[in-house]
Amino acid sequence: GLPVRTAADGTAALALLAEDVPCLLVVPREPADMDGFDIVERMYEIASQERGPEQPVIPVLMLSGRGFTHDDVRRAEPHPGLMLLGRDILTEEETAGLLTRMTRRGDPGAHRAHAPVRHALAYIEQHYRHPLSRRQMARAAGVSENHLGRLFHREIGLTLWDYLTRLRIQRAKERLRQSDDSVQTIARAVGFHDRAYFSRVFRKVTGVAPHVYREAS
């Protein structure tokens, strides 16, 4: 396999990038000491200087536990190889598969699908607390419903609904750990308006009931 190099923070990451431009970069949206986009932009700057403007697109996976905003999507636009993803939404196996697919896309055109997917992800992150439709997501992404569904599944490996459900459950887990709010209150806060249905979905995704998860945490 390919060698893996890790950095404790953004400053260390920039030092590694100055030594060698990677074939794939995984970066947090919010490192402790700088903005994740600054790291990405610096990497592409170094790559352009070393390899020239006709360099292959270097794929980047940016992870965030806080969600992405429309401003994040705007900052990502100049970088076709940049994919945005919520932290802990995918399993380790799914993430490994995603990274493998990203490294195998040598054609710059293969990364164009990232743009509508980024718009859809940001829209989901900003509106997951409310009822959502495929039509709303597609309008935010600027493509048809069917086209977005195909792109999203191909890029992320999940359907739009699976991603939305996992995001809601991830936010519910955070609230169960960090607050004393009732399960009913948390369910409503993350977009479920029926406690029984929320509990069934939570158990399906995590393997345990919400109250059991809270007690174990």
Characterise the protein shown here.
The chain is mainly α and 217 residues long. It has 2 domains: 10-158, 3-Layer(aba) Sandwich (Rossmann fold); 166-216, Orthogonal Bundle (Arc Repressor Mutant, subunit A). It is built from 11 helices and 3 strands. It has helices at residues 10-19, 36-51, 70-76, 92-103, 114-127, 134-141, 145-156, 160-178, 183-189, 195-206, 210-216, and strands at residues 25-28, 60-64, 82-86. Strands 1-2-3 form a 3-stranded parallel beta sheet. Helix 3 packs antiparallel against helix 5. It is globular and about 55 Å long.
Give the strand order of the largest sheet, numbering strands 1, 2, ... along the chain: 1-2-3
The tally of helices reads 11
Q: What fold name goes in the CATH topology slot of the largest domain?
A: Rossmann fold
What is the arithmetic mean of pLDDT?
Answer: 91
Terminal-residue CA separation = 36 Å
Residue stretches low in confidence (pLDDT < 50, at least 5 long) are none
The top level CATH class name of the largest domain:
Alpha Beta
Please identify the structural class as seen in this structure: mainly alpha
* SSE string: HEHEHEHHHHHHHH
